[in-house]
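Hi support team,

I submitted a single chain yesterday and got back a structure, but I'm not sure I'm reading the token output correctly. Could someone confirm the output below corresponds to the sequence I sent? I've pasted both exactly as they appear in my results page.

Thanks,
R.
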Amino acid sequence: MPSTTPSSTPATNEALFARAQRVIPGGVNSPVRAFRAVGGTPRFIARADGAYMWDAEGKKYIDYIGSWGPMILGHGHPAVLDAVHKAAADGFSFGAPTEREIELAEAIIALVPSVEQVRLVSSGTEAGMSALRLARGYTGRNKIIKFEGCYHGHADALLVKAGSGLATFGHPTSAGVPADVVKHTLVLEYNNLAQLDEAFAAQGSEIACVMIEPIAGNMNFVRASVPFVKRLRELCTQHGALLIFDEVMTGFRVALGGAQSVYAKLIPGFKPDMSVFGKVIGGGMPLAAFGASREVMSRLAPLGPVYQAGTLSGNPVATACGLATLKEISRPGFYEALAAKTRSLVKGLEGAARDAGVPLVGDSEGGMFGFFFVAQPGDGLPQNYPSVMATDQARFNRFFHGMLDRGVYLAPALYEAGFVSAAHSADDIAATSRAAGDALRA
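Hi R., thanks for writing in. Yes, this is the structure output for that exact sequence:
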């Protein structure tokens, strides 16, 4: 076996990438990390602390990826580290129930009124796939609706005209997915009310569920309009389909009650039938969940006929990390402060672009944000996948590298949202705005 002893000479990002490509497809374990969309060499991260990351060459970056959303407290929060250390000392995994699983389920249910029971799993893909199976098992129907540009993990039935990495590489679907598997998946345009009405009018009695990202973070940052969400709820109720909110990205990130709590303030009585969570609830550990009413969840094994299982589900270290994170973000004033920082960042980016004579629009909710280089001043925010695709990708790519060179780490693809943490300071936000101005004028 080759030696694993570290070299006395620090490796460069280029050397690590070349080495990685020999043993890992594309040199990465998740495609968007490869920088294929923006060009250049991925940065191999050596460590992180608070709002910052350092790469293998020792360069420091202000981090706006936050492990793609989970690090809402920043990296290495003391309370989270303490909880993880204590849990790890007691054991990594048991394959048997623990009290901490109950505590995490209780915490999620207390914060999300639409959920009466949850099942813990290990990834957002697993949660989305399981929610879909449960919806079909509960309704006895096969057809599902998803929206172009929304990504719900890489389960076969959902990997149709998805966003994120697929949008990055220009593929509307994935090789290896049989046509028979996706023949029951109806793909509609996000925020298109006419298509929604037509689909339910034609096939409403066959539709098991509608799955949607309420704020589509895999199209960068695109909100579902209030009339669209309202009509979704009405049609699902009318036709007996389940409305599934995929809150892997938005859950506990845009608000303490997730995106559904944002819409509940705008649509009286609104709630989804099922919710899918990930990222923040694990605090950076592999952990996700799906939940619904007690009636729907009772169809899951061992109570019902819908099978779902996972060896590492409810992992004791991951649940400790998630519980500590949820405790911190539940403190009074947490989201008000986080949202203010995020709005300040977006305003700073818009201001820098305006001063440089570059048309840019941005938006944010809680600690999640996005921005687009639009065709001309006055253009509004994109509302769906085609309008996202019409924005200036080449300019984004130049901007990404300009910011990276100046020590600001944004998502390496036009189609990904960004994330602010509680660890980001006003100085970090100001430094980012200055870097944006310099990058846009370069």
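A quick pointer for reading it: The longest helix spans residues 334-355. Let us know if anything else looks off.

Best,
Support desk
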